[in-house]
Amino acid sequence: MKAVIFDLDGVLTDTAKYHFEAWKNLARSIGIEIDETFNQHLLGISRMESLELILQFGGRSDDFSALEKDELAARKNEAYRGLISGMTPADLLPGIGQFLRDLKEAGIKIGLASASRNGPFILDSLQITSFFDAIVDPAKLKKGKPDPEIFAAAAAQLKMRPAECAGIEDAVAGIQAINAAGMFSVGIATPAAAAADWRVASTAELTLERLKQHFTRKDK
């Protein structure tokens, strides 16, 4: 194992609650009510994909032009950025700070493969940007998770073969993407973890020593 590639939401920090609040308020403004159960479908996918699912759920898929959809997505993002603007290192999930330090000290490369375009902003707020050797820009990708493109792009930026990488996710689409990329997958506290190569109940269980013990290469 030469590199570890992280998702962001639910892995490094918990921003899902802020996404849900922003989406719920936007949906309500156009007459659609969503709950936490529906919100599970929005985890790990892009902003526009999330908006399309909400419009479909509310029976309003054909009620907005492409420009209007862009404006709705921008409104959601503005509200979301307002909610996350006060994040600090205290918002890192349990064990993540030490895990990142241990990876860095061991010379293992670290990448970010998040569908969130706010990834760099959040890393800065959490004061962990310096740990990352590669941050994939989701705006430059053609396909979202569960397609493996984002994890393949992270490996390429790190100049690593997929088999040399471990990917860490908490969402169904994300774990499917890691597996499809040919990487060792780690699933955190989710039913989706059943498809992961190694499963942990929380981020507190993530340590470099334990990851090395479980890691196996998936050379094709």
From TrEMBL:
InterPro entries per record: B-phosphoglucomutase_hydrolase, Beta-PGM, Beta-PGM-like, HAD-like_sf, HAD-SF_hydro_IA, HAD_sf, PGP-like_dom2
Site (Important for catalytic activity and assists the phosphoryl transfer reaction to Asp8 by balancing charge and orienting the reacting groups): 114, 145
Active-site residues from the entry: 7, 9
EC number: 5.4.2.6
SUPFAM superfamilies assigned to the protein according to its UniProt record, in alphabetical order: HAD-like
GO annotation, biological process: carbohydrate metabolic process
Free-text cofactor note: Binds 2 magnesium ions per subunit.
Annotated positions binding substrate: 7-9, 23, 42-47, 50, 76, 114-118, 145
Record's keyword annotation contains Isomerase: yes
PANTHER family the record matches: 6-PHOSPHOGLUCONATE PHOSPHATASE (PTHR46193), HEXITOL PHOSPHATASE B (PTHR46193:SF18)
Identification of the protein by name: Beta-phosphoglucomutase
Lineage: Bacteria, Bacillati, Bacillota, Bacilli, Bacillales
Gene that specifies this protein: pgmB
